[in-house]
Amino acid sequence: AAAERELRLRPPAEAPVRLFTEPELARYDGQEEGQPIYLAVKGVVFDVTSGKEFYGKGAPYNALAGKDSTRGVAKMSLDPADLTHDITGLTEEELKSLDDIFNNVYKAKYPIVGYTSRRILNEDGSPNLDFKPEDQPHFNIRDEF
C-alpha cells in the first residue's frame, strides 16, 4: 500500500507514453527540420532529438532513426538488413552488447516516449503478457491507452 501511495504522489510524465506502429515511428526519422527524432531499441521508443548531431539528417547514425533498430544496435551495424527488431541468431556477445547499450546509452541519456506496438501486442493483436515498461514508475496502461 505504501509503494502504491508513493507511485500516486510522483509527478506525471511530461507527455503521455505512446504506442507506435512502424509507419508512425518512421515519421520521426530526423529528415524533417523541427520534428522530434525517435528510435526504438528492444521495442522502447526513445526521443533522441538532443543527439541530433548523431541521429539527425546526414548524421552518422541517422539510419537507426525512425525504426526499431535493435539488431543494428546489438551488432553495431548500419547495414539496412540489420535495422530491424529481429534478434534471431544473435550471439551471446551481441546480446550482452545490446543490453549494455540499451541501459548505459539509451535509457541513461534519452527520454522514453513510447513503445512499439510489437512490444505490447503479439502478432495476432493479443496483449504481450511479457511487456514490462522501462523506467516508467508512473506508467499505467489504463491511464495511457
Describe this structure in words.
With 145 residues, the protein is α+β, with helices and mostly antiparallel strands. 34% of the residues lie in helices and 11% in strands. The protein has seven helices and four strands. It has helices at residues 2-9, 22-26, 52-55, 70-75, 92-109, 117-120, 141-144, and strands at residues 18-20, 38-41, 44-47, 112-116. It has a four-stranded mixed beta sheet. Strand 2 and strand 3 form a beta hairpin. Residues 20-117 form the Cytochrome b5 heme-binding domain. This is NENF protein.
Features:
145 residues; alpha+beta; Flavocytochrome B2, Chain A, domain 1; 4-stranded mixed β-sheet; disordered C terminus; metal-binding; Cyt_B5-like_heme/steroid_sf
Q: TL;DR?
A:
The protein has 145 residues and is α+β, with helices and mostly antiparallel strands.
Note the gap between the termini: 24 Å
Radius of gyration: 16 Å
Percent of residues in helices comes to 25-40%
CATH class: Alpha Beta
Total of helices: 7
Quick one: CATH superfamily?
A: Cytochrome b5-like heme/steroid binding domain
Largest sheet: 4 strands, mixed
Strand content: 5-15%
- Biggest sheet: strand arrangement: 1-4-3-2
The residue-averaged pLDDT reads 83
Residue windows where pLDDT falls under 50 for at least 5 positions: 5-13, 135-145
Q: Tell me how many strands there are.
A: 4
Q: The CATH topology, please?
A: Flavocytochrome B2, Chain A, domain 1
Quickly give the structural class.
alpha+beta
Tally of individual domains? 1
CA-based shape: globular
CATH architecture: Roll
Pfam family, one: Cyt-b5
Main location: endoplasmic reticulum
Protein name: NENF protein
GO molecular function, one term: metal ion binding
